[in-house]
Amino acid sequence: MYYTTYIARRKQNHIRLVKLGFLSRDLGIIDAIESKHPGCLKETLPVRKQKMLQVIRTLYSQQEYMYRTKTHKVENRIVSISQPWVRPIVRGKQTADVEFGAKVEMSVADGFLRIEDLRWDAYNESTTFQESVEAYKRSYGHYPQRVLADTIFRTRENMKYCKEHGIHLNGPKLGKPYSDPALQKQQKNLEWQESGERGEIERNFGVGKRRYCLDCIVTKLKETSEVMIHASVLYMNLRKRLRLLLRLFFRWLWNSIQNQLEEKTFSLA
C-alpha cells in the first residue's frame, strides 16, 4: 500500500514538473517577444488579458516555489486565474474542510442584520471585535449592554475591553470557576440561555444561504460579488421590516373591527 502511494506521488510530482516546464517555456517566449518589441503587449492585448497574464506569472512563481521547497503553503495563494482574489479558507467543517469565497462577519441588532466586515482572505475575526462594538456605538449613541459572540471573539483583550465599557460578554468568566454549586449552576444556565439567543445569527446565515443566494454568488467580478452579498443582506432586512409593518397593520385593522363591533352591540333586559 505504501509502495503504491509512493509511486502515485512520484507520478504526480513528475506531471507537475512537466506542466511547470511548459508554462516556463511559454512565458519565456512572451518575454523574448516583449524584449524585441517593447510595448507590443500593451498595444495588442486588451487590459483584461494583460491582467490575466500578470496573474499567470504570479501563479507560476507560487507553484514553482512550492515545488522547489516541497511545501503546499504559500502566502496569498492563487486558486483561480479568472478570480485571483479568491483564497482558500480552511474551515474544518464536516461537509467541506476548505471553502472558497468571501468571509463575511455579520451582527444582529434589534433583529436586523449588519455586515461588520467582508474580506476575501483568511483572517482572525477576533481582531475586528472592538471595531464592531465601536460601530454600534456610533450608530446607536451608546455601547450595547450585552454582546453574544462566538468563542473565537473571547480573547483576553476583548474581554478586558468589554469589562472597561460595562459590556456583558457571553461565556464563562476568566479564572477559577465558582466554588458555590448554586453559582455554578446559575452560570451554566445563563450560558445555555445565551447560546440559544446567539443562535439567531447562525439561523440568519442559514436562511441567507438557503433562500437569498448567499451560498451561490455567480457574479464574476470582485466588486459585483460584494454588491450581491450586500444586496442579499439588504433584502433580508427589508423583508423583516415589511413583516413588522404588516403585523402592525393587521393588528390595527383587528382592533378597529373589534371597536366597531363593540359599538354596534346592545343588550335587552
Mind sketching the topology for me?
Blueprint: H1 2-36, H2 40-44, H3 47-69, E1 88-90, E2 98-100, E3 103-109, E4 112-119, H4 129-140, E5 146-147, H5 156-164, E6 168-169, H6 181-211, H7 222-264
Parallel strand pairs: 5-6
Antiparallel strand pairs: 1-2, 3-4
Helix pairs in contact: 1-3
Core attributes:
269 residues, 6 strands, two-stranded antiparallel sheet, single chain, mainly alpha, Nucleotidyltransferase, domain 5
Query: Compute the gyration radius: what is it?
Result: 28 Å
Shape: extended
**Going across the major beta sheet, what is the strand order?**
1-2
Count of DSSP strands: 6
Give the % helix: 55-70%
Which structural category fits the helices and strands? mainly alpha
Describe, in plain words, how this protein is organized in 3D.
The structure is a single chain. The protein is mostly helical and 269 residues long. 59% of the residues lie in helices and 9% in strands. The strands form three sheets. A two-stranded antiparallel sheet has the order 1-2. A two-stranded antiparallel sheet has the order 3-4.
